[in-house]
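lol so apparently i was supposed to do this last week
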Amino acid sequence: MEKIRVDLGENSYDICIGSGLLRGGNVLREKVEGQRIFIVSNCVVAEHYLDSVLHQFEGIDIDVHLMSDGEQFKTLQTLEAIIGDLLAKGHKRSTTIVALGGGVVGDTAGYAAATYQRGVPFIQVPTTLLSQVDSSVGGKTAVNHELGKNMIGAFYQPKGVYVDTDTLKTLPERELSAGLAEIIKHGVLADSHYFDAVEKDIGRLREKDEAALIRAIKGSCKIKAAVVAEDERESGSRALLNFGHTFAHAIETGMGYGQWLHGEAVGVGMVMAADLSARLGRCSIYDSKRIKALVERAGLPVSGPPEVSADAMLAFMAKDKKATDAGLRFVLIEGRIGKTEIVRDVPLRVLRETLEAGLRLCE
Ligand SMILES: NC(=O)c1ccc[n+]([C@@H]2O[C@H](COP(=O)([O-])OP(=O)(O)OC[C@H]3O[C@@H](n4cnc5c(N)ncnc54)[C@H](O)[C@@H]3O)[C@@H](O)[C@H]2O)c1
Ligand SMILES: [Zn+2]
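anyway here it is w/ zinc ion bound
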């Protein structure tokens, strides 16, 4: 089992990564202090993995709450149902909440843990590649409001994160690719060696090769943990994790959420951010082509969607909360893959060129 430390002073914790973590032993118990746990999951994930998790906690009192599956259920209503269940079953502040599932379950259960009786301990058992390398690291928890994604939430760190790569065996291919988008992002923004390694391993990753998955997840968690340790509450450098995301959010808003997976929009978003970096002379055309090639090999779209226009994307970007706080800003490559910076004042003409090139169906 590999361990990555997320260094946040008294909120520090470990991410444990391995194959078969859930199958044997009781590693999940190490951070549970009380005698009761409350598992939050959904039917899809519970069908595969709930039994193994229950085994890990044999001998202590367990309640299970299954929420409906899907981003549309990451809501205050679901949160209220979870809190109601905790109260009805008499859970106290010593109960540990266990999130078993992808980012939707993790974000919702995490926010329930942050708010139930002003905060109870929680641990994460992420089961999608995206949640293993991204959403379970860094303590952002939230539910959506109909006027905006993740608009109700808190920074709240888990006591531990347990990544069993065996859970990826049942993950659909499209969801796997969506997780690869965030993995590629981590390489571009912070570590050229990691990017090289992912480039070499991309075929093995898509085949769910165990060793390749462990290498990639470990590397990604390390990068994200370092960024988060430097800026837990996103007052500065944590924003670099948004590489490709200003474009991605505009694509998601333009198409209506739920059409493309977030990771798919991030795929095109990264191709656009790399293209913009090259047009502004911030990186070589060679590097921007390398990024595009890797995104494509990860099984992600590299252009489109055809129904969204450059004008529509510009309008959505101007409305993006993160953008409007301090004018339109982008995370762009700084010289080479592995270094990024936040750039303001991108000339509109160049931005439009990037959008028009990126939205074209075939190049
Ligand atoms: N907190 C953060 O920092 C952060 C960062 C990135 C994304 N997010 C959030 O994460 C969410 C997306 O997470 P996601 O991509 O994991 O989506 P998800 O949780 O919706 O999971 C995707 C699908 O896969 C299913 N699934 C999960 N594990 C499975 C497994 N092992 N086998 C088969 N099916 C499985 C789920 O039931 C779901 O249908 C979004 O709400 C996003 O806002 C949060
Ligand atoms: Zn993302």
